[in-house]
């Protein structure tokens, strides 16, 4: 009986470690998107073209993967990063991530797009990771979102926005808006919404 209990506990521990690894891998991609504004400042249209190309190539890769045809590297990265809910289906997260950044970059001035992209990269990226690691208190009606994750989102966006504008009030309002959006049960569509909406709110505040 004790051996069986130890076996079950071992399986649960391995599953938890695997989930944390996947979250860490996935959110490292989120955080790496913070470099996009820097590249946009040096080569705007080439970066826009690369984002569009990435969306097209990834979409084709996922459609082929659904038919059992794996694309080297791309399919492997998707497999490693995919959540349990994404198994045997089109993994939408990378598409919404790139589209959210693309929309912000095309519609907003670079300084405003930068704040929106940072909100996605640091706010949403770190929120999910901290929620997995330290989240004990869940937020009612938020589909498993945790207080730890939401607070992490708030502070990450506040700091990144303050680094961009040096204004505490603007940073506070921007961070509160980002935290509210992050709490909403939007699944992967928060990637699509956060950069343009937060960038637009920031542009209105300044």
TrEMBL record:
Signal peptide: none annotated. This is Dolichol kinase. One of its GO terms (molecular function) is ATP-dependent diacylglycerol kinase activity. The chain crosses the membrane at residues 42-60, 90-109, 115-134, 154-181. Keywords: Kinase, Membrane, Transferase, Transmembrane, Transmembrane helix. InterPro entries: Dgk1-like (IPR037997). The lineage of its organism: Bacteria, Pseudomonadati, Spirochaetota, Spirochaetia, Spirochaetales.
């Amino acid at each position: 009986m004790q051996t069986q209990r130890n076996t079950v506990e071992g399986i649960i521990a391995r599953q938890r470690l695997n989930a944390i690894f996947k979250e860490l891998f996935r959110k490292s991609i989120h955080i790496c998107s913070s470099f996009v504004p820097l590249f946009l400042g040096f080569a705007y249209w080439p970066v826009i073209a690369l984002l569009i190309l990435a969306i097209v190539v990834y979409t084709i890769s996922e459609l082929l993967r659904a038919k059992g045809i794996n694309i080297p590297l791309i399919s492997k990265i998707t497999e490693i990063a995919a959540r349990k809910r994404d198994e045997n289906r089109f993994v939408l997260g990378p598409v919404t991530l790139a589209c959210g950044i693309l929309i912000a970059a095309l519609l907003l001035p670079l300084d405003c797009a930068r704040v929106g992209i940072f909100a996605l990269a640091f706010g949403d990226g770190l929120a999910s990771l901290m929620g997995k690691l330290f989240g004990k208190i869940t937020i009612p009606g938020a589909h498993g979102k945790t207080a730890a994750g939401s607070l992490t989102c708030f502070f990450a966006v506040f700091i990144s926005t303050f680094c961009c504008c040096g204004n505490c009030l603007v940073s506070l309002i921007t961070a509160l808006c980002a935290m509210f959006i992050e709490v909403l049960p939007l699944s992967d569509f928060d990637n699509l919404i956060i950069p343009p909406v937060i960038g637009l709110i920031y542009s209105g505040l300044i």
